[in-house]
Amino acid sequence: RRARDLPPPRASSDDDAPSAAPAEPARADPADNVPSKAKGLGKGVNLFDPAATASRFITRRFGFTGGLVFVGLLASVEGREIVGALLERDSEGSGETVATPSGLTYADARVGGGVAAKKGDFVGVHLLIEDLETGVVYLDTKANKKPIAFIFQKKPLLAPVCDGLEEAVSSMRRGGVRDVTMPARLAYGAAGAALANGLVVPPNRDIKMRVSIEDISPSYL
């Protein structure tokens, strides 16, 4: 074709520009999923091993050399704990119901072969919390694979931790599984409790709770 027969060049417009890639949806901050008692530990901290927090604290306080000394001591301690954990043997619970003076009752489905919790230890548990009367499930941490971590016998207690849970844990060992029944005064009392999953335990509800101790770690501070 001759040049005069060619169509004139078309002016470019915004419609011709390559379309921009769709924006990624906003991601939730992982810290939002951390139990409220552990938010002060900072992002990225393994809730079942407070050594990272302790190491950062010592490094800030005593410098890099102090941090290295801590790591060396920790390695020897952790080595012993790892060997001990490998030798732990859980056993089947008797299923016998035990009543305590406080009004708590429990039956062991599995007796843990690990260490017992001491005041100040970090305890990691899976919880199944149900209403004793209605059977409504308020929390099941195994379903969402998000165990609860808390500092044993540290006040104030923040839900889902309660007096009944701490009493149950006090006579358990790592690896143990216990079915616990507690009156409202040992659970969430007249105030009830708002849980992290958005559900609310109403006031004055007797509670059934299955407690599985996943880990017990000593406090290094």
UniProtKB/TrEMBL annotation:
InterPro entries xrefs: Chloro_FKBP-type_PPIase, PPIase_dom_sf, PPIase_FKBP_dom
Keywords, in A-Z order: Isomerase, Rotamase
Leading EC class: isomerase
EC number(s) on file: 5.2.1.8
Keyword Isomerase: yes
Domain PPIase FKBP-type: 120-217
GO cellular component terms attached to this protein's record: chloroplast
Statement: the UniProt record of this protein carries the keyword Isomerase: yes
Matching Gene3D superfamilies: 3.10.50.40
Region (Disordered), start-end ranges: 1-40
Chemical reaction(s) catalysed: [protein]-peptidylproline (omega=180) = [protein]-peptidylproline (omega=0)
A GO MF label: peptidyl-prolyl cis-trans isomerase activity
Pfam families according to UniProt: FKBP_C (PF00254)
Full protein name: peptidylprolyl isomerase
